[in-house]
Amino acid sequence: MTEDERQWAINRIKAKRAFWVHLVVYATVNAFLVFIWAVTSSDGFWPIWPMLGWGIGVAAHGASVLAGPSTISEEQIDRELRARHG
To answer: Which of 1, 18, 33, 61 could form a disulfide with 47 if both were Cys (CB 3.0 to 4.6 A apart)?
Structure first.
């Protein structure tokens, strides 16, 4: 395994982790927006607009990566490299 391949695998694993952080932040912020809407009893359900707009970004991010565990092991790096090479 070359150093470039190893770095590629590490970057891929980090991208998968970043997606989960993105998803958690999305859910937390939007839950807070729904709470604000519920407390202020506004007429229309306005939180749908940021949910839809940001949701498109989260979906695109999720489509590009899969979830991964919290540590990077040699086995994960090897798995990513095997997936890259077929």
So the answer is: 33
